[in-house]
Write a structure and sequence with these properties.
single chain; mainly beta; Immunoglobulin-like; 1 helix; 11 strands
């Protein structure tokens, strides 16, 4: 039985690095395969919040720091698997202002999507403890005198 063996060699040059990739197949069809490898720098994403405990409806600042700071692209912030929103990186940081309308414990992560030069990465999770809105507090956006604020204390 006659068997044809065909081997395809592909040299992929990305940036300044030369990568060697080989794909081999055997059979009478003479088919071949090739693998393309991309060369991206590893990244680390770190998530912080302006506070870990707040009242429902209070704006919180979420900051994702991506290292190396030269990374470009977008970071998406998540509450579990639900997206809270996305922000573009600037100087290695992406910032999102968010609030939570109901009391509870929220598990937040930040995911850097990567780019052609930098690999994607996801932060460790942080926990936010959101309590019910403070009683006696003025509705958001209202003007309160210093005397009224002191009376609440």
């Amino acid at each position: 039985m006659k068997q044809n063996i065909h081997c395809a060699l592909t040299i992929v040059v990305i940036a300044l690095a030369s990568l060697f990739s080989a794909g081999c197949s055997s059979g009478s069809t003479g088919s071949s395969s090739a693998t393309t490898v991309t060369n991206t720098a590893a990244t680390t994403t770190t998530l912080t919040s302006s506070t870990s405990a707040a009242s429902a409806g209070t704006n919180l600042i979420l900051i994702a720091a991506v290292s190396p700071t030269a990374a470009i692209g977008t970071v998406t912030f998540y509450n579990g698997s639900a997206s809270l929103g996305s922000a573009a990186l600037s100087g290695g940081d992406a910032t999102l202002i968010s609030s939570f309308g109901t009391a509870g414990t929220y598990t937040i992560t930040a995911a850097y999507g990567g780019s052609t030069s930098y690999a994607a990465s996801t932060s460790d999770s942080i926990t936010l403890n959101i309590s019910s809105a403070a009683s006696g507090a003025a509705p958001e956006g209202s003007v309160v005198s210093i005397e009224e604020k002191m009376a609440l204390l």
